[in-house]
Design a protein that fits this description.
The complex is a heterodimer.
Chain A (H helix, E strand, L loop, with lengths): L4 H18 L4 H22 L21 H32 L8 H11 L25
Chain B lengths: L1 H21 L3 H5 L1 H18 L5 E7 L4 E6 L2 H24 L7 H20 L3 H19 L6 H32 L4 H6 L5 H17 L8 H4 L5 H10 L3 H14 L3 H22 L5 H21 L3 H32 L10 H4 L1 H15 L5 H12 L4 H26 L15 H16 L4 H12 L17 H18 L1 H9 L7 H23 L4 H19 L16 H19 L3 H21 L3 H22 L12 H28 L9 H8 L5 H9 L1 H23 L43 H24 L7 H27 L4 H21 L9 E6 L3 E6 L1 H37 L1
Antiparallel strand pairs in B: 1-2, 3-4
Classes of the chains: A mainly alpha, B mainly alpha.
């Protein structure tokens, strides 16, 4: 099957631009990146579906070979609606982030940063129970009953 | 045998309500479970001693070879008797040991009973995996029992330490089991032992198995967890850490010794570690002031002794080992129970504070002294018989014999120290005036002491099973008996006692010498260092990989995409040769627009600009769909793109118009580089994928199938609602969750609760439309700020709204045969509502949609799922379409396809999504803005 170079290039450019935005910290930018990325992937489906034919409707005159491949189209259709839902959700996140912090930048995870700091200071984890007995004698095991 | 375990399980479950109701008296009832084990084992005795080995095999998953297998051979029989008998006595003892209304006793009773069950299962199991499961069950229950006093830090730490050490060993053992099972071709324990595989793998497996035994039985270098585990209540020490659980390792060694004792690795490990443990444990026991710790180190020592005996692999040593097993289980639990009573009555276990207890509690003193005498190996008690037999077994191995004698000297010395320390009168210490224990309290240790005393003269009773266990082994064993005449072992016993007497007499000097510092490096410190090092490694690894930065995570994922699948491109041959530049020239034109828009989106600094440019790429994609003959796609994409734009604009109203200051240029270039790399890879993937498509596509049959079975001409739509209906249903669920998430995020108020998200009634539509509005084009038009009102917009909305809604319904019903469908219809209806909102504000929107979005979403999913069930009701598969044709007078023939209802569900759900989004980003943000202007 012969791939369509124009579609390949469009898809590649959309993906490249989408990924560039995806790596930003501003949530709105990330979201726009997702939109570009999803458009790019949808175009990839077109590449994979082969040459265009007639619209996939069963009518008297059209044979299956003459139609565009309907299966990728069905997949893309669901993808479009999912993207819509996702855009709405991430926008809500961005809005919430603005409400709470006054901006929509994705911050580093606080707990993760704490662990990184511990690693830099050569400390143990917070849950580590370091019971150092001065005499280092194992006979001193605490016994209470 | 399965019944026994079930009895324990039921007893453990009932223990909590039972003990809660009748308090500590419940322990006596629970003791019936292990007592039943003992009685059952007693009845099995004749059969076992005849050499029959009763078996029970319950097939479980025959195809996997998984089964429950139990077997009662002489070794298991001896241990079952001990586990059951001592368990019952200790549970009886618990009835007096715990204070009345002790809040923890119910939980303790349950865990303890469960433990006795697990231990019984362990010694009866005849399947390697099953053995492992029971093994780990005892570990877990032991953890819970040691940590009984969870408020004590030392108890928690001891429990964790015991768990970590024994689980480590248990895992090693599991690996060993699996290796052995795979090599032998069976996981049946008796069969594996009967014909142990040979070779390197099997040797490694056996060594791993020894690691399990060593950790469980607290041998050097893992002995440290056992003294620490003395943080547990005394019944636990008496049972788990003397009679039962720590014997599991000894049991495993005894189980495999007949087959593995020839391996040099086995012999060296067992003898060296066993002797070292015996000596170190006894040495340390001699310097303890806490009598419970003294016993704990004594136990460590005896476990080493036992391991040497049962692991040596000769008939004589094994016979001695079984004798010692019985002796130790009885005298050591008796001693622990005695200490428990002393602690309970006097409140201390320090032998420097105890004095004159022998007069105060004579019965207890008798029990303690008899048990200690048995431990020391004083004639006629069980310990004496066992030690004589042990000396006899190693007469031809002077090195081991010397170790055993030395260990026994120390044992006798610390036994004397125990009796002296606990019961003797000491100068300068006031005599104890503690209350005397009740007879019931003393009964259990007294019974055990009696057994250990009588087991000496009655040694021939133990001889029969011991001989049966040893019959597989080389060499001949002397029969167990009190009197063998004047022989070398007797002489060694005399020597032992003479040396021990010297140690006792010169105890002041011994103590001074020991006090000069531990001669043995502390294994506990090693454990702590190891755990700390592990923790540090974990922190470093987490710190290095878990940077907490979203861009870093995404970049790592994307770089893997470039490196791994992208790297695979290098080996791809051949590349598709027949690449076409374009199908129609229009594609090139659209492509240029899309690409330019995409690049400009990346460069945009204004939010709105970026969004609009992204929209351009979306509409461009729509055109590409049109050119590719996908009318449904194009329709849905165009509608979705429009709604996306509206949503973006509504949501971005409150965010700053510009993106925040751009980070350093350097990282920007990195981002662009990653983007270009991923984009390039994606393009190449597309080329390769298209080139790989050489088979006849499955979709060639789709149109015919769609018409024949799906009853529709629109192949894409039939695919969605019929062929891939499951997929669509999953997608609907995702949309529902996303919509609900949007509402809860936006409606979330800092002080309020999230349930307002589902209650648009907080902002109710005007109940009675004002009189004046009758002249308005829109019912709630007057609620809009006059400056923002547009009459033209209102008129157009009024005129087109209903037409658009009708169109959306048409799309749903026609969608089966023509372009359209539930998604497109729902989006059209949503757009109609968007227009209504834009023209008339949030009150207008609420008038148009007087229901909660949740209703729309829920009924949509319900309808779709319900249609799926119809398929079952009419005797077909889930989500299978049924075609019903009937005539209606005016409309003519109607062809009703059940999947239309599925599509209506899709329609409702999509409308619900849009309603939710508008209500959140539109109405709710309007309200927040209004509130903000009012308050400011």
């Amino acid at each position: 099957m012969s791939p369509n170079l124009t579609l390949v290039v469009i898809a590649g450019m959309l993906v490249a631009c989408g990924v560039t935005l995806l790596l930003e910290r501003t949530l709105t930018r990330v979201l726009v990146g997702v939109v570009l990325l999803s458009n790019g992937i949808n175009v990839l489906f077109l590449v994979a579906s082969g040459r265009p034919g007639r619209a996939p409707f069963v009518t008297g005159g059209t044979t299956a070979e003459q139609m565009s491949d309907p299966l990728p189209q069905a997949m893309v259709l669901t993808a479009i609606v999912i993207t819509l839902g996702m855009v709405a959700f991430v926008l809500a996140l961005a809005h919430r982030s603005w409400q709470v912090d006054g901006h929509d930048e994705v911050q580093d995870d606080v707990e993760d940063r704490r662990i990184v700091r511990r690693a830099e200071l050569d400390e143990t984890s917070a849950g580590y129970d370091d019971e150092t007995r001065e005499n280092g004698d194992e006979d001193g095991a605490g016994v209470d009953r | 045998m399965l019944t026994l375990l079930l009895v324990h399980a039921v007893a453990a479950v009932l223990a909590v309500p039972l003990v809660k109701r009748v308090d500590r008296r419940g322990f006596a009832v629970l003791a019936l479970a292990p007592a039943a084990t003992t009685v059952w084992a007693g009845f099995q005795g004749p059969a076992v001693l005849r050499g029959e080995n009763p078996e029970v095999v319950v097939p479980w998953v025959p195809s996997l070879g998984a089964e429950l297998a139990f077997r009662l051979d002489p070794l298991s029989w001896v241990l079952t008797l001990l586990v059951g008998g001592v368990g019952a006595l200790v549970l009886l003892y618990c009835g007096s040991y715990f204070h009345e209304r002790d809040p923890g006793s119910a939980r303790f009773a349950a865990v303890f009973t469960a433990f006795t069950g697990a231990m019984t299962g362990l010694v009866l199991a005849d399947d390697l995996i099953q053995l492992y499961v029971f093994w780990e069950l005892t570990t877990v229950f032991s953890y819970l029992l040691i940590g009984y006093d969870a408020d004590q830090r030392s108890a928690r730490r001891a429990a964790t330490q015991a768990l970590v050490v024994t689980t480590f060993g248990g895992l090693a053992m599991l690996v060993g089991f699996v290796l052995l099972g795979q090599q032998a071709g069976t996981y049946r324990l008796s069969e594996v032992v009967a014909d142990l595989p040979t070779g390197t793998t099997a040797t490694v497996a056996v060594v791993l198995l020894l690691v399990g035994a060593i950790t469980k039985s607290a041998l050097v270098p893992f002995h440290f967890w056992l003294p620490a585990a003395m943080a547990a209540p005394t019944p636990v020490s008496a049972y788990l850490h003397a009679a039962a659980m720590v014997k599991a390792g000894v049991y495993l060694v005894a189980r495999f010794a007949p087959a593995a004792a020839d391996l040099p690795q086995w012999r060296t490990t067992v003898l060296v570690l066993g002797l070292a443990t015996m000596l170190i444990g006894a040495y340390r026991a001699l310097r303890q002031h806490d009598v419970k710790l003294l016993l704990a180190f004594g136990t460590v020592s005896q476990l080493g002794f036992l391991t040497v005996l049962v692991g040596a692999g000769t008939a004589a040593a094994t016979t001695a080992g079984i004798a010692l097993l019985v002796a130790h289980a009885t005298f050591k639990s008796a001693l622990f129970l005695v200490v428990g009573i002393v602690d309970h009555q006097t409140g201390t276990r320090d032998l420097r504070e105890l004095s004159g207890l022998g007069r105060r509690m004579p019965l207890l003193a008798v029990a303690g002294t008899v048990a200690a005498a048995s431990m020391a190996g004083v004639p006629v008690a069980a310990g004496f018989v066992a030690k004589e037999a042990a000396y006899d077994a190693f007469l031809d191995d002077p090195l081991v014999l010397a170790g055993l004698v030395l260990g026994s000297v120390l044992t006798a010395a610390y036994s004397a120290r125990f009796v002296w320390g606990t019961f003797w009168r000491k100068p300068g210490v006031p005599d104890s005036t503690a209350p005397r224990p009740s007879p019931g309290f003393t009964a259990a240790p007294l019974a055990l002491a009696t057994v250990t005393l009588l087991a000496g003269p009655l040694a021939p009773l133990v001889d029969r099973p011991a001989a049966l266990v040893a019959q597989e082994l080389p060499g001949e064993a002397e029969h167990l008996a009190l009197w063998h005449g004047f022989s070398a072992p007797l002489l060694l016993t005399v020597v032992t006692f003479a040396l021990a007497a010297l140690l006792v007499v010169g105890r002041g000097r011994v103590e001074a010498w020991q006090a000069r510092g531990p001669a043995v490096p502390s294994a506990d410190r090693g454990y702590r260092r190891t755990v700390r090092a592990l923790d540090r490694v974990a922190v470093e690894v987490t710190g290095a990989t878990q940077r907490g930065s979203l861009p870093v995570y995404l970049a790592s994922i994307l770089l893997v995409v470039v490196a791994v699948p992208g790297g695979a491109l290098l080996w791809t041959r051949p590349w598709p040769a027949d690449v076409v530049p374009y199908d129609t020239p229009g594609q090139v034109l659209v492509g240029i627009v899309v690409v330019v828009a995409a690049v400009l989106t990346v460069r945009a600094r204004r939010r709105l600009r970026a969004v609009v440019l992204a929209g351009v790429t979306g509409y461009g994609t729509t055109l590409l769909f049109v050119l590719h003959a996908g009318p449904d796609l194009a329709l849905t994409q165009a509608l979705a793109e429009t709604i996306t734009l509206v949503v973006f604009v509504l949501a971005l109203r409150r965010l700053p118009p510009f993106f925040s200051a751009r980070p350093l240029a350097g990282t920007r270039w990195v981002r662009i580089a990653i983007g270009v790399a991923v984009g390039t890879c994606a393009s190449l993937f597309a080329l390769v994928a298209a080139g790989a498509r050489v088979a006849t596509p499955v979709s060639l049959d789709l149109p015919d199938l769609a018409y024949e079975f799906g009853g529709g001409r629109n192949v894409v739509n039939v695919t969605l609602v019929d062929a891939r209906a499951w997929d669509t249903m999953g997608e609907l669920a995702v949309v529902l969750v996303a919509a609900t998430g949007v509402a809860s995020l936006v409606f979330h108020r800092r002080t309020g609760s999230t349930d307002q998200a589902f209650a648009p009634s907080t902002d109710p539509p005007p109940q009675a439309v004002p009189e004046s509005s009758r002249q308005n084009w829109l019912p709630a038009g007057s609620t809009v700020d006059p400056e923002r009102r547009s009459v033209v917009f209102e008129v157009v909305t009024r005129l087109t709204f209903h037409a658009i809604v009708v169109l959306s319904l048409y799309l749903v019903f026609a969608g089966h045969n023509q372009p359209g469908g539930g998604f497109a219809g729902g989006l059209v209806a949503g757009l109609a509502l968007v227009v209504r909102y834009l023209a008339g504000g949030r009150h207008e929107f609420n008038t148009a949609v007087p229901v909660n979005a949740g209703w729309l979403l829920g009924s949509g999913l319900f309808l779709s799922a319900g249609t799926g069930l119809v398929g079952i009701l009419i005797g077909q598969g889930v989500l299978q379409t049924a075609v019903i044709e009937f005539g209606v007078p005016v409309l003519g023939d109607v062809k009703l396809v059940t999947s239309v209802f599925f599509d209506i569900g899709v329609y409702l759900l999509v409308v619900g999504l849009v309603v939710d989004v508008i209500r959140s980003f539109g109405a709710e943000i309007d309200r927040q803005i209004d509130e903000g202007t009012q308050t400011s």
